[in-house]
Specification:
Length: 262
């Protein structure tokens, strides 16, 4: 089995003292590749540094909707320059979050659109964050997404209609440890059956969203635990875990334009 954690935050302070050990545990659990995701200029730089120092790690750069109020054209230009590093294979995490509202709606929308435009210019796939946008996310993407521009809906938690819209737009769907949680994961387990195999990605969103059974031992999630997500996904879809792992690996490498040699 070979696994790719398509979304983790090894640049989070939760790993300040043991990043190397966390990456080594991931490798011991068949997780041979990881996408380290940036959410600010600072964390994007950290993601690039981690990816540059560890084989099998890649980076994304971007500004999260929570941090949109601090975004500027200058900071996006710095991220654009950072994206020239060969370890950078995606732009994001970017999108809309009208649930917690850490940044005003109009500010989130402005910088989301700008990041979609820049990613299109750089021909980088997008890593999307969407929560409670009431259709606005889809509306903005319809208006601003470039032809053949694609991405992954990170930590998918939408409904049937939203899933259909994402699939129609050619997006991949990121499945997290929520799938493994008995009550919280009911809807996700149902919808996971509707996702074509060639659009599935698995992720941890580490250090958040620790899956079962690991959540019973630790609060901090880490890339090694993506194996539990994959195994649960195989159980839900009633398919062979090895075969599903191979398909998801291929999907992730296709999206991030990573060949088998890395």
């Amino acid at each position: 089995m070979i696994l790719f954690d398509s979304h983790c935050h090894l640049n989070d302070k939760a790993y300040d003292t043991d990043t190397d050990a966390v990456i080594e545990r991931a490798r011991q659990n068949a997780v041979t590749a990881m996408m380290v995701v940036g959410i600010t200029e600072k964390t994007s730089r950290q993601a690039v540094s981690i990816a540059a120092a560890h084989a099998g790690c890649y980076a994304s750069v971007g500004v999260h909707p929570h941090d949109a109020e601090k975004c500027t054209e200058k900071s996006l230009e710095k991220l654009r320059q950072l994206a020239s590093d060969p370890v950078v294979r995606a732009w994001g995490e970017t999108g809309l979050d009208f649930n917690r509202m850490y940044s005003p709606k109009e500010i989130q929308e402005k910088w989301f659109v700008r990041q979609v435009e820049i990613a299109g210019e750089l021909k980088l796939p997008l890593i999307f964050h969407e929560r409670d946008s009431g259709g606005r996310f889809h509306e903005l993407l319809n208006a601003h997404l470039a032809t053949e521009q694609t991405g992954v809906v990170h930590c998918f938690s939408g409904n049937d209609r939203e899933l259909e819209q994402y699939l129609d737009m050619g997006f991949y769907i990121g499945i997290t440890g929520i799938l493994t949680i008995k009550s919280r994961g009911v809807d996700l387990r149902r919808l996971a059956l509707k996702i074509p195999e060639d659009r599935l990605l698995v992720e941890t969103d580490a250090p958040y969203l620790t899956p079962a059974p690991e959540k019973n031992q630790t609060r901090r999630n880490e890339p090694a635990f993506v194996k539990s997500v994959l195994l649960k996904l195989a159980e839900v879809r009633q398919t062979d875990p090895e075969q599903l792992a191979a398909a998801v690996w291929e999907n992730t490498c296709r999206l991030f334009k990573i060949n088998e040699e890395g």
